[in-house]
């Protein structure tokens, strides 16, 4: 009896469109937080200026790295099925 092998669609990576949307969302979120940090530097007192200033300087780097990472767990390796010998190829011992 032949064994039927069904490939799993869950092992496929995200579509390029979904991956692009995810990366754009991550970049936009990080840059929005950066803009908030930049604006808050002018309105907060004391050491908070330094905290928000560092955020405004560091977040562009973080945003680019997040955007270039792509989707999490985009794909995983799928082991090929083990081929069973055909009945004609089996030899009695």
Description:
This protein has 93 residues and is mainly alpha-helical. Helix content is 51%, strand content 0%. The protein has two helices and no strands. It has helices spanning 16-40, 48-69. Helix 1 packs antiparallel against helix 2 (48-69). It is rod-shaped. The model has no long low-confidence stretch (mean pLDDT 78).
Topology (SSEs and partners):
Layout: H1 16-40, H2 48-69
Beta-strand segment tally: 0
What amount of the residues lies in strands? under 5%
Overall radius of gyration: 26 Å
What is the chain-wise order of helices and strands?
HH
Structure summary:
Helix content is 51%, strand content 0%.
Which key phrases capture this entry?
2 helices, mainly alpha, 93 residues
